[in-house]
Amino acid sequence: MNDEPCRFEAEVAEAARSGLWSDALRSHVAGCVSCEETRMVAGFMNRAAAALGRQESAPDPTLIWLKAELARLGRSDQRERRAWIWSGAISGVAATLTAWASIEWALPVIMAHADVFAMGGAAIGLTLGVLYFAVYRPLRHVRR
Question: Between the CA of residue 60 and those of 9, 65, 115, what are the distances in Å?
Fold first, then answer.
């Protein structure tokens, strides 16, 4: 491999890709080791692309990098979203338990002023409502 760059390398690579060679460029390649290596590598890459069935040139490396970054960010965003959902579910369960304990603690006071069955129904309804909105509803939106 030659470490000396030549100012015609880009033109040689384009000519090797397109197949359009000028006489001056052909005579330059015959005497320039760097351009001859570029011609050989470009020719190999064109044959490899044809063997793979690709007619267009390879995509821009910046585009490939951006797609990889977006995929990486999407994965970290999904992990973060899942953590928030689980923390919400745990908070919902804690709130439900706290509400249930408060009702049980205050039940003797409430019993003196309300019907037992009405209070029990309200407690069960409250518990089921909190469980639905705090636990079940957020978890059903998590993609697996």
Answer: 19, 9, 74
Residue with tokens 């089921």: 128
Number of Cβ within 10 Å of residue 41's Cβ equals 14
Q: Whose CA is closest to 33, among 5, 57, 74, 66?
A: 5
Please give the residue range of the domain that contains residue 131: 61-139
pLDDT digits (tens, 9 = 90+) for 42-52: 888 888 877 77
Q: Is residue 3 part of a domain?
A: no
| DSSP assigned state of 57 | P
Within 13 A of 56's CA, how many CA atoms are on the CB side?
A: 3
Residue-wise DSSP of 36-95: HHHHHHHHHHHHHHHHTT--SPPPPHHHHHHHHHHHHHHHHHHHHHHHHHHHHHHHHHHH
One domain for residues 127 and 65: yes
Closest CA to 17 of 62, 56, 61: 56
Domain-embedded: residue 30: yes
Give the whole-angstrom CA distance, residue 99 versus residue 102: 5
Could you tell me if 59 and 33 are in contact, meaning their C-beta atoms sit under 8 angstroms apart? no
pTM over 0.70: no
